[in-house]
User: What shape does this take?
Amino acid sequence: VLRDMSTLPRVYVTRQIPPEGLKILQDSGQVQFELWDSDDVPVPRKELLQKVKGVDGLLCVLTEKIDAELLDAAGSNLKVVSTMSVGFDHLSLEELKKRGIRVGYTPEVLTDAVAELTVALLLATSRRLIEATHEAKIGGWGTWRTLWLCGYELANSTVGILGLGRIGVAIAERLAPFKVKKFIYTDVAPRPELAKAINAEYVTLDELAKQSDFLSICCALTPDTKEICNKNLFSKMKNTSIFINTSRGGVVNQEDLYEALSTGQIAGAGLDVTVPEPLPTTHPLFTLKNCVILPHIASASYSTRNAMSALAANNLLLGLRSQPMIKELKL
Ligand code: DGY
Assistant: This one.
């Protein structure tokens, strides 16, 4: 039986998302959708503003700003925005709420991948792996030397977590077998249920900075956490501390971080996220040996990215049917 597709709800997908999610949309028979058919460049803003006109649903990724301008361009048909991300700082929640638009996102499915990458980045930074492979390759490898390329080890260390949620817990669970001595964390309030799982102690932000040998940033970017990692925080950290950020670049004041790294205020930093993204190759942080920068890949495993796309597609379809989504943001 041929159905008249033109009567189905219209959806715009802002990226060529991984196959599992696309298949769910295709097989659903529930929507007609148009796709920005590239994964290499984001849809230009002008094109996006055109494409969203009159749509019922929008499936986006974190490069698209979903703000008043875009929602106005979409118009009153828009019922659901589904983002293929756990982070939602690219969405103006207030504007969405005002318009009664429901929002889906993709927590949990990426927790393992992000925690795994965070551990990899932490070790790469603290044991200076990038510097080391570079030295080996360029002929810097002379004789075996007693203090050459020495770093800092997790055994007997204190690990601090700024923002204890699912991801922070998953990171701590993976670090514990490295014989970490103590886990500490801070958040807007103690989170005893989560903290119990990893035996973590609640401390103030000041204490977190002072005590942590490794400081892992796991909070969401909000007006309260914007540039929370600044001169004030770095100045309290030990000269031997390693700073790791796999949340959002906006939680860090990058000038202050550069200062802390280049003056030896802290020992090293591993960043999966920056401002802006991509970080220009001429950025001063790239000149520092003690700064390891990754291009926002924490959730980048095939299985996780497919799971994220599937969840985003299912959230969208459920929302358009006015049913509860699998993962819906409370606005
Ligand atoms: C997210 O989901 O918010 C990450 O930054 C990308 O996986």
In short: Residues 62, 85-87, 110, 299 surround (2R)-2,3-dihydroxypropanoic acid (CB under 6 Å). Residues 80 and 251 are 28 Å apart (CA to CA). The first helix runs from residue 19 to 28.
